[in-house]
Model the fold of this input.
Amino acid sequence: MTPFGLRLRELRAERGITQKEMAAGLGISAAYLSALENGRRGAPSWQFVQKVITFFNIIWDDAEELQALARTSHPRAIVDTVGLSPEATELANLLASHIGDLTRADIDEISHDLRVRLNRRK
Done:
């Protein structure tokens, strides 16, 4: 499941809407919506995210959050390290080969640490 897929599922549950109802409202198949929620499809297009925002009548910060989740929700992330240091390439490959071995706590800790480091540079 992707962050965007999880949020879609939460929005549907909060409003008591089935996948079939939401799919019909968005003009897509229930199978596509299920695949999107479960991380079996790539990141959604900007146009699709706008349809979801309209469907749920989401405004301001919540709409921005949903757009940000969509941008970071491709189930097959690719990290291009061409031109970066050998250490950056090693880090990318280490993460790619072992992400499945990490616990939720490990992932949360690494993500938090990375966000802190990136925010310090702003």
Observations:
- The chain has a mean pLDDT of 93.
